[in-house]
Structures are given as structure tokens and as C-alpha cells.
Amino acid sequence: MICRRACFKVVDDLDLTPLISYLSQVAEKSGCDAKLTLNVSRKTLVCEVCCLRSKKLIDVIKARFAAVKGLKASKCFGSKGLTAPSGWWPLSGSVCLGVEAFTGSPFCLDERNLRRHAVIVGSTGSGKSTTAKKIFKELAHNKLVLDWHGEYRGVAKRIECISLNRLRSLGQLELMDALANSLKLTDAQYYLLMKVVQMLYAKGGEFGIRDIIFYLKSLEELSRWIRESKYSLLRKLEMLTVRGTCKFEITDLESLTEGGLVIDLSGYVTEYAKKFVSHAVLAYLFAKARGGELKRTYVIVEEAHNVIPKSSELSVADKIFMEGRKYGLHVIAVTQSPRAMSENVMKNSYVKIIHGIREVDDAKYVAESVGDPSLWKEIISLDVGEAIVAQRKLARVIISNS
Ligand SMILES: Nc1ncnc2c1ncn2[C@@H]1O[C@H](COP(=O)(O)OP(=O)(O)OP(=O)(O)O)[C@@H](O)[C@H]1O
Ligand SMILES: [Mg+2]
């Protein structure tokens, strides 16, 4: 981050309002943050600008301010090497994570880089969720967390259960996608399920997993394969209805578009249910985003290897990694098992936040994915809360835990 200061002598009575609005406009356009301070007793006006890239902004501002009647450019005393105090500069459009390990200067991500998706990797206990929470708090956009272990309590409004009784709003294709990806269906099971789902959509009215089970049970068993597939499919669907601490309170998918939510999946007993809800949420948001009905939204996906696993089939989450950016839907995948995750995640994440990894093969895989095979030695030596952040170039960062 580059910070610059320009100072002016106030030689006349001055209305600061147009200057402030001009300053905020140019700063916002350039992805910078700026501040004007008027020192009445000393009759000076100080303009401070911090940018991630643009060094020239202060010259543009100086030239514009010099044209203002009542201002005269003056020397800034003690302004050399101005660095942004952490926490003071809420750079518009930036997500500040902590400080650079070697320089101690604040480290912020440009929010626009996160639009090209991100991945946070690291062994268990290395600090992944702490970093993800930091990003969640800093992001000034619609945001959701798919929280597998209930780690995000107190971070934002929490939803315990997504209703599995009201699935119509999901859409037929999205529902099939969510079921197929969470239940790992065979072709025969997929075919039977599709028949039932098509029938429920054609029938009209609300329906849920229990209705799917009910109609599947009533399907005629005209052959042995139908009978076998039907009962194996029923066993999988029943897994979605096992009640844990999640009381199946009704939170409709529609309410997800309001953003700023933590979807706590820890109450679901089975992995099947956690996966189904994750896929349903992603499929719903993606459909809304493609239809232009969703404000820019970020989704943090915890345990991403479970939601976007390595597989020959493309899941909705894979599709979001490949196409979500242009519809304003962005994912931050969090995982301790990078090799178990779809290759699309590493390939399509512009920002990679790498915490300490103890498993050498995982560390080597991640090092290769950032184009620096020798980096694995540094990755295995990172302390808790330390990370290497890879964007266009690498930075070693100490993540702030506040
Ligand atoms: N940036 C940090 N600064 C200081 N301590 C940290 C930081 N990040 C994590 N910790 C410490 O490490 C512990 C584990 O962090 P965290 O829960 O974020 O790890 P994790 O990688 O998400 O682990 P898991 O894979 O088990 O979910 C935290 O409880 C905290 O005490
Ligand atoms: Mg965690």
C-alpha cells in the first residue's frame, strides 16, 4: 500500500464540501482511500491518500486543489515515509488482513481481486477460519458463510436450519443438481428421482424431501433394477430427514439473498444433509445471480473439499468457480485437504491464502499451484496465524486475530 500526503495553506475562507466530494470520487475511482483534515489554528489543509497501486493520485489531487481559489500548495512537515496505521484506513474496496511479516506495513487485499474467487488452505488449527472471519467482517458486500462446524457464532446473524420442506423455489434443475451432488446418485437412481421431481413440479404447490420420499415409495416396481434403485435411493433420501439439533425451523431459501448471514450446518446430523443444504444454497444463489436478481455476493464455503470435491462431474460449485464472477457471485473456499478438492478451485482462485500445512504432499501441491514448487518448505514452517498470500505476487502476512 502506498500512502501520500499533500498540504495546502488556506488563504481565504473556504467551503470544504466540494473538495471532500471531489476527493472521495477520485479516490473511489482509483480504489484508494482519502482523508481531508483542516487545521483551523494553523490554517492548513492536509490531504492524505492511501492506495494499493496508484502513485499518481496525489499529483492529480494536488493539481485540482491548486486550482481552488483560497488554497496555496505548501510543504508538508514530517510527512516523509507516511505509513497507514493499521485499522485507521478503511480503504474503500479493500480487505485488510493484518501486517506484512517482514515490513510490518498493513496488508490489505483489493476487494476486486477477491471477485476472481479465493481459497484458504492450511492444516487443522493453522488459522483458516480466523482468516475467513476477518475477510467476512471486512467485506462491505452481501456475504454468506456455509459454516460446517458452527465456528462463526457471533460473527453475523445465524441461521440454524434451511427448510427442507419448501424446495419449489430452488427450481427443478437446481434441485436435481443439489440432490445428485450430495447423494452421489447412480444413473438409475438419478433417473427415478428425476421422474418424481418432475411430477412434483408439474403438480404445483409446495413440497419437500418428505414428499419426494412419499412419491418415490409409491413408484411401481416394474422391474428388478427399479426396485433395487428405488430402495437404495430411499435410504439416501432418508439421511436428509434425520433430525439433529436442527429443528427444521423454517428459513426459506428466499431469505438468503438478504446477505450478512451465517448458515450454521453443525445441527445437521448427516454429512448428506450438510452437503445437500450447501449445494442447495449455492445452486439457488447461482440461479438468482444468473437471472440478475442478486446483488454482488460472497460465499465463504468451509470444508470446501466436501462441497467441491474432486470428481468427474461438474457440480454447481465448480460452475460458480468458472462463471460466477461475471454474475457477481464469488466464492472463498476454505479447506484443510486441498488435494481432495476439485482442481477448478485452485485453478480459478486468483487469491490464494496459504496457512501452515503439515502434510508435505499437500504443501507441494499448493506450492505448485502458485507456480513456485520450492515454496513448500516455507509453507510447512508457517506458524499459526501466519500465511503466504498469493495473488500476482507472494506476500508473507501475519493475520490479525481481531
Ligand atoms: N491470526 C491469528 N492470530 C493469533 N492466533 C490465531 C490466529 N489464527 C488462529 N489463531 C489461533 O489458532 C486457533 C485455531 O484457529 P482456527 O480455528 O482459525 O484454525 P482452522 O485452521 O480453522 O482450524 P480447523 O481446520 O480445525 O477448523 C484459534 O483458536 C486461535 O487461538
Ligand atoms: Mg476452521
UniProtKB/TrEMBL annotation:
Catalysed reaction, written as an equation: ATP + H2O = ADP + phosphate + H(+); Couples ATP hydrolysis with the unwinding of duplex DNA by translocating in the 3'-5' direction
Pfam families: DUF87
Record domain Helicase HerA central: where: 102-279
Molecular-function GO term, any one: 3'-5' DNA helicase activity
InterPro entries, sorted: HerA-like, HerA_central, P-loop_NTPase
Similarity remark: Belongs to the HerA family.
Name the record gives this protein: ATPase-like protein
Organism: Ignicoccus hospitalis (strain KIN4/I / DSM 18386 / JCM 14125)
